Amino acid sequence: MTDRWLVVIDPQAIFAAPDSDWGSPFFPEAFANIRRLADAFGDRVIVTRWLPTADRSTAWGDYFAAWPFADVPADDPLYALVPDAAGLSPRATVDLPTFGKWGPALERITGPAPHLVLCGVSTDCCVISTALPAADAGAHVEIVADACAGSTAENQAAALHVLGLYPPQIALTDTAAVLTAR
Predict the structure, then answer these.
(1) DSSP letter string over 105-169?
(2) What is the arithmetic mean of pLDDT over 164-179?
(3) What's the mean per-residue pLDDT of the chain?
(4) What does pTM read for this prediction?
């Protein structure tokens, strides 16, 4: 794992809680694999959070109008990490108001053309929105399918299908393969 970075995308209450409109029913199974991966990656783990701080005068205003339950302050418990995610990384979380997490904040940690191993939630939104610009920027990207949680089974399959169209920049893998590739 010495040259790879594990990026755990948005393991937050809003995406994990069964009673949340954005909760993934697959989060518990994915998180079990995320924990195994984080243990193996040690101090090369980065955890991100999506925060509702985007400018409401942009298209984000329409977004929050469509999802009013999520239009709460960034310090609302909805946006907290799930309790088991708090110790995944020794680093501060990378907090952004965008679906995609690749950009200057991650690049400062990983360097400009890293090898990223992505997992988290949701596959069909924030994971895919992180993977594509990272690959465009020159990163090698692995998507750990069984450590990602989609909004639905159909959306998970569709997102993985799309991500699978980008080899060799983006590769689909699973937890067992990542752990044995040490």
Answers:
(1) HHHHHH-SS-EEEEEEE-IIIIIHHHHHHHHHTT-EEEEEEEEEE-SSHHHHHHHHHHHTTSTTT
(2) 98
(3) 96
(4) 0.97
